[in-house]
Amino acid sequence: MTEPPREAVFVARALTKVYDMGEVQVHALRGVDLELYAGEMVVLLGASGSGKSTLLNILGGLDTATSGQVLYRDHDLTRADDGALTAYRRDHVGFVFQFYNLIPSLTARENVAIVTEIARAPMRPEEALALVGLAERMDHFPSQLSGGEQQRVAIARAIAKRPDVLLCDEPTGALDSSTGVLVLEALERINRELGATTALITHNAGIADMADRVIRISDGHIIDVQRHATKKAPRELSW
Amino acid sequence: MPTLDRKVLRDVRSHGGQVLAIAAVIGSGVATLVMSLSTLDSLHAARERFYQERRFAHAFAALKRAPDGVAQRLAEVPGVLRVETRVLAPVNLEVPGFGEPITGQMISLPTQPRDGLNLPLVIRGRAADPARDDEVLLSDAFAQAHGLAPGATLQAVISGRRQRLRVTGIAVSPEHVLQMAPAAVFPDFERFALLWMHRRPLAAAYDMEGAFNHASLQVARGAVLEDVLARVDHLLRPYGGIDAHGREDQPSHRYLSEEFKQLRQMAIMFPTIFLAVAAFLLNVVVGRLIQTQRDQIAALKAFGYSNLQVGLHYLKIVLVIGALGGVIGVALGGWMGSGMFDMYMQYYRFPDARFQLQPALALAGVLISCGASALGTLVAVRRAVVLPPAEAMRPEPPARFGVSLVERLGLGRVLSPAARMVVRNLAKRPARTGLSALGIAFSCAILMVSSFFWDTMQHVMFVQFRLVQRDDITVTLLEPTSWRARHEVARLPGVTHVEAFRAAPVRLRHGHRTYRTVVLGLEEGAALRRLIDGELRSVDLPPDGLVLTGHLAREILGVGVGDLVTVEVLEGRRQVRHVPVVALVEEFIGVSGYMTLPALNRLLGEGDALTGLHLTVAPGAEGAVFRAIDERPRVAGAQSRHAALASFERTMAEQMLTFAFFNTILASSIALGVVYNAARIALAERGRELASLRVLGLTRGEISAILLGELAVLTLAAVPLGWGVGLGLCWILSQTMQMDLFRLPFVVEPRTFAFASLTVLVAATGSGLLVRRQLDRLDLVAVLKTRE
Question: Using alpha carbons only, what angle is made at residue A187 by residues A182 and A192, rounded to the nearest 5 degrees?
Fold first, then answer.
C-alpha cells in the first residue's frame, strides 16, 4: 500500500531525556525518532515508566530534551527558550491531563474561559462546552461534576483555542469504561471536525484501535509503529 | 474581569478564616502606624495653627522688676521683631466646696492686643472689661475641672489681700496648651489655675505699676536665638532677669515636643513588629497555597500562561490580603487615633482641635501594608514562578522525614507514636516551626510591653511618693525668707514635723554642655525628702559638694563623681562657682541637683534663707494646716503629697491604660493569627494522614491530640522565648523613654509575665478549638479518595 504524501507536524530525532535524581540518573528517553502528521490521531502505548509521558511533555513544550532535536513545523523546540515555549503552547497546543487539572475555584465555563482569554482565535467557551456535550452544566464548579464531566471540561478547555495539536495524557486513566467512552468520543469528534493532530497516551491497548497509528514505547525506545487502515469508533472499543 | 482574577477572589474567599487572621495582624501593624501618625499629625497641626493665630512667642524671660522703658531697649536687640512685657504673679484661690488649696498664676493681658504675643483666646463668655478691676479670664482646664462657667466668682488671695474675682470668659493660650503650674512635673487641673487680668489692676495689686516682670519676644526668621537670648540676659541682669530661654525650655511647648517624640517612636517600633509577623504568616500561607495548587499552576503554564502571569496571579492574592489588612488597619488606626487624640485633648487645650486622618496617611497605610505583604511572600511566589510545568504535573514527592533530634537524644523510647509524629512534624520544617514560635513569642512580648508600662509607672510612683517625698505638705514661699518662717509653721496646730529647703534656679555647665535646673538645699539629715541610689538605698547628703540626678550627670552633662561642675546661679547675686559632684542619686521624675542647705546658702552668698518647707501633719489635720498656711502672705503655694500622687496616677494611668488597652487587642491578634494559621496549615497538610488514622480506628480525641499537640508544643516553647523578646522590647522602651521630664526604669514584675503568657495561652486555645471543630468534621471517605 502506498501512502499519500503527508505533512509532518512533528519531527523528532535522537531524542533523549535523562532525569538527574540526585544519586541516580533515570533515562526516560533513549534516542527516539518520530514523526507526527497533520490531522492524524496517534496513540502512544506503553507501560507506566516507559517514557511516553516524557515524550508528550517534550512535544508539548512542557519539558526540554537532554539531547536530540524536535521540530514543530519550522519551530525548533529544542532550542526554544522559556518564553518561546510559552508562546508555542499558547498558540498551538491543547492539553488534556489524566487528573483533569481543573481549577476548583472556577466554574466549567470559567475554566474554559481562562484559556480562551489568552488565545488568538478561540471559540466561545459555551461553544467548546457544547462540543463535549456539557452545554447544560457550564456554571457548575468542578466539585459538582462527575469525573467524566470534569474530563470533558478539560477537553473543552484544550480545544477551545482551536489548537493545531491536542496532547492527551491518559485522558481516561481515572475513569470507568463507560465514562471513558464518552470522553474518547469527544476526542474523536474534535480530531475529525477540527482536524487537530491528536496524540493520546495510554497504557491501555484496547484504546489503540481508534487511532490512525499506534506507537508502542518501552523503556525509552519506540519498539513498534502500527498503522490502522480502518479505525474503530470508541463505542466499539473494549478494555 | 479576566477569569484568572476571578480565581484570585475565589481563592481569597475560600481561605476566609486564614485571610482574616492574617489581615488582622497586618491591620494591627498598620493601625499602630496610622494611630500614632494621625494623632501626631492632628496635634501638630493644631499646635502650629494655634501658635500662629495667637502669636506664640519665640523667647521668654522672667525678671524681678524693670521699668516699662526697658521694653524699648529689648525691642532694639538685633533679631527681635516684637516685645510683649507682662506682669505675672502667683495667686491663691478658693473655690466654694473644694477644701484643698489651689494655686494659680495671674497673667496680664496685652495692652495692645493687635501687637501682643501669647494671646489668650476666649472660647466661652466674653473678654474682660479694661474698665473693671475685678474681671478675669479663667483657664479652660481648671474651669472644666470645677464646672465653672462665665459669670462665676472666685475668692483670691493677692499679695495677702482677699479679693473677689469675676470670671467673664474661659480662655486657652498657646503658652499654656498644657495648663500646668510652673514648677510642677505633671498637670493638676483641679489645683492650678491661670487667670488673665488687665495690666492696670493687676499691676496695682502687685505693686508693679509702670513696670513689668516678664518679657516675651518674637524673633526674626534667620536670627540666631542663642545670640538674642544672650543679649536679653545681659540687658535684664540689672533687673533681676532670670535666664532668658527659647521655646524648647518653655514647659507647655516642651511637653508637647516630648509627646511628639514618643508618638514618632511608637510609629516605628510596633508597626515593624506586626508587619514582620504578618509577612511571615503570609509567606507560610501563600507557600502552602502554591504547593496545593501545583497542578493548577501546571495547567495554566501548559496552556500558555507565562511565568510572569502566574507569578502576578499569586502576587495579586497577596495584594488583596495586604490591601484588606491595610483598609482594616487604616479604619482601626483612625478609630484608635481619634481615641488617643480625645485623650490628649483632656490635657492639651487647643481652641479648635480636630482629629484628622490625612488621605495621604491612609493611602500610605494601605501601600505599606501591600508592600510588606508582597515583600514577605516573594520567596513563596517565586516558587510558583520557577515551577517547571512538567514537574508541577506530578504530585509533590513525599516529604522527607527523619528521626528527630529529640529521639536521637534517646528520648524516643518514652514517646508514644503520636508524640513522635508531633515531634517529627515540628522538626521537619525547623525554619517554619522556629518562625511560628517567634511569631507567638512576639505576641507575648508585645503583651508584656503593655503590662510593663504599668509596672514601671507603679515603680516610679512608689519611689517618688513613698521613698523620696515623705512629707504630707510642701509649702513654697514667694521669695527667700528667714529661718523664722520655719519656726512659725512648726508652731501651727497639727504640724508634727518641719524641714526647710531652698530651691535655687541654676545653670549647670560642664564643658560645652549646659542645663538649666534647680539646686535644692536640704537640711542635714533631712527625713522628709530622701535621696536614693540605684538600689533604692538612702543616700546621705555629704556636707559639701553637689549631688546630681544620675540622668542629669550621665546623659545631659556627661560628668561623674569627682568631676567639677560650674554652677551659675540665676537669681540674686548670680554667683558662679565650680563645685565637685560628690554623689549621684536615682530619681525618675525631673532632674535636679542637691546640696545641704548650709552649703547651698554659702554658694549663694546670701546668709541663712529658705524658700520652702516640707511638713508632716497629724492625721486629719491637713485641711486646717492648709487653711492656716494659705493665709500667710509670703506663701506662694502649698501642695499635698496625696493630691500630687492622685493627680500623677490619674494622668499617667489614663494615658497608659488607653495605650495598653489598644495594645492588648492588637497583640492578641498576632497570637490568634499565628496559632490559627499554624493550626489550619497543619490540618491541611495532615488532613489525609489524620483521616487515615481515623479509618484505622483512632478516635477524634486521639487525632486531635496529634494535631493540637503540635500547637501546644509550639505555644509552650514560644512563651519563654516571648519572655526573652519581651524583656528586650521593654528594655528598649525604657531606654527610649529616658527624658528630662521623666524616665521609665526597667522594672518588669512577675504579673507581666503571667498576664502575657495567659493571654497567649487563651488565644492559642481559642484557635485550637476552632480547628478542632473542623477536625471533627473531617470527611474520611472524601479525604481518602482524592489524590494527594
Answer: 125
